[in-house]
């Protein structure tokens, strides 16, 4: 087994190619300070459901909002007893994009909050959407496109997807603008999505070379400030246009991400492993119950007796013998060697965890 491991390991090393560096546009690495979206939320009512709405006995808030809507429309329902099954209370969420103007339309998501079974075919009644400051910025209304299907019979019920949530494309209209005047900025602050000192310094150098003067200054690992007067741009918008398409080679921390549910392993090109020895094996424990029922003799007064019978077995798979990984080995080379040995992804994740715990894996190890 040790010989097989080193054979596969040498093949992986000989086939490994150095990763080519790639440049990325600045617009894909940073966010411009002040240019951001704002979350919106509202509470509304969906009507027109085919008997799949809230049970008003279990969702009294649905009856309350329905009464309020009908009273605003001039229908007096005070003291009336109504139990329709074609309405549902929902929460409506959306994002107000930057520079959205009055009359613009945005997409919204509708989610049931009661015991409704499905929102398929429902219509959202006019619902105001509020931001964090409590002000109404948009009004939503429209037919819901549900994200699932439900079928039910006398003794069985099948649900595919999530029928209690849906979307309304362009279902909200902007009624208020965010008070932000982009033209009055004297400096631009570029916020890196993944803060890194090297990447920030490269962005500063690229911008200064492009404008021919020292207009950009790196403030910290996550911020680069651009002086608009030194940049020579006619407006902040023109400065962003001149900056965002410049190419920069980003520098990121080495990272390994594993998903234990699916056995997925994703790693960066800069992950390295120090000198370490690896040994891995599988232990399987099987316990089987096969009880035996003993019947009494005919015409006797005896009782049936159940005799327990248990079989226990322990199996040990030799797995990978003790193998040594040289210093400075690339993680992709180790993974290639383990794949050549037929190691399963879940066992591979356990090996990586052990290498990280031993302090030999030089990267951020993220488990999802």
UniProtKB/TrEMBL annotation:
The keyword Transferase does not apply. The lineage of its organism: Bacteria, Pseudomonadati, Pseudomonadota, Alphaproteobacteria, Rhodobacterales. GO terms for cellular component: bacterial-type flagellum basal body, distal rod, P ring; outer membrane-bounded periplasmic space. It is found in: Bacterial flagellum basal body. GO terms for biological process: bacterial-type flagellum-dependent cell motility. Residues 1-19 form the signal peptide. The basal body constitutes a major portion of the flagellar organelle and consists of four rings (L,P,S, and M) mounted on a central rod. InterPro entries: Flag_FlgI. Pfam families: FlgI. Assembles around the rod to form the L-ring and probably protects the motor/basal body from shearing forces during rotation. GO terms for molecular function: structural molecule activity. This is Flagellar P-ring protein. The gene is flgI. Keywords: Bacterial flagellum, Periplasm, Signal. HAMAP family: FlgI. Belongs to the FlgI family. The keyword Signal applies. It comes from Mameliella alba.
